[in-house]
Amino acid sequence: MKTNPVKRKLREGLPTFGTWLSLDNLHSARVLARIGFDWLTLDLEHSAIDWAQAAAVFAAIADAGCVPLGRVPEGNHYLIKRVLDAGAWGIVVPMVETPEQAARAIAAAKYPPQGNRSAGGGMHALNFAASPDEYYERANDEILVVLQTESPRGIENAEAIYRLPGCDAIFIGPVDLSFTMRSLHGRPPTADEHEALVQEVIAIGRRVGTPTGIHCMDPETALRRASQGMQFLAVGSDLRMLTLKAEETVRTLGPDRARGPLAKY
Predict the structure, then answer these.
(1) Is 91:146 a contact under the CB 8 Å cutoff?
(2) Which residues of 193-220 are buried (b: 16+ CB within 10 A; e: fewer)?
(3) Taking 80 as the threshold, does the pLDDT of residue 257 lie above it?
(4) pLDDT above 80: residue 255
(5) Which residues are the active-site residues?
(6) Is the model's pTM score more than 0.90?
(7) Alpha helices (runs of H) in the chain, residue ranges in sequence order
(8) Is the pLDDT of residue 206 over 70?
(9) Which of 65, 190, 231, 239 has its CA at 20 to 30 Å from residue 144's CA atom?
(10) CA-to-CA distance for 258 and 248, rounded, in angstroms?
(11) d(Cα 70, Cα 73) in Å, to the nearest integer?
């Protein structure tokens, strides 16, 4: 059975770099899986991707030698089970704000006795080049569980969340963190206020021994975050890469053609 190199790198204190898949496109996923990223995360939270599409993308990534992850819409048992049974090697769980939420998500990703994931299917085993029995025996050791910190409340509870057995890494969603930091009158946080909370997450992760990461818009920022000790680092997305290159091409053809940025991630 294949082993998960991203889990190994995180345990060894090494940085890992990946990108987000927002497009429901098998061809682009196959290409990006061969570019050199450690992992690719299929975004099932914000993209219109169905289960059959997800399964095909996870298989293509795994077959290419890259690690397929799925961001679930929320951390409930049903969605986590479906993503893992479709062949993902791990999950990214958004908006985790309490230890109870974190514990439920971790349990859903683990077979008994560590968790309550139900056994069935065979697509998951194929992506690990394993028999179903071998997969059931070893999946708990290979599945990656990444919990997202995206609010001040999540940071208030961070130490208890990050210490939970089975929490492999923490990932900051910087845009959602900014939105949840808005004042009652809608004032967004300053850059310094936002950065202070990011640094608090890094410090807590270092203190409890849990790897941290964040979504970056460019590789230079990802390398800077790695130098700060972060290990699970996303660089843009397939949609952002497509958009930025297309915008660059159009600007070269004529500045009057440019219509502004069309992709945040």
Answers:
(1) yes
(2) ebeebbeebbebbeebebbbbbbbbeee
(3) no
(4) no
(5) 46
(6) yes
(7) 5-11, 26-32, 51-63, 77-85, 99-108, 123-127, 132-142, 152-156, 158-162, 174-180, 191-208, 219-227, 238-253
(8) yes
(9) 239
(10) 9
(11) 9
Average pLDDT, the chain: 95
Structure-token match 């029995």, residue found = 133
The predicted structure's pLDDT at residue 260: 66
Residue entry with tokens 């297309």: 246
What's the pLDDT score for residue 58?
Answer: 98
Q: How confident is the model over 213-217, as a mean pLDDT? A: 97
Q: In 3-state terms, what secondary structure has residue 213?
A: strand
Structure tokens at 64: 């290419």
CB 231 within 8 A of CB 17: no
Q: What amino acid occupies position 6? A: V
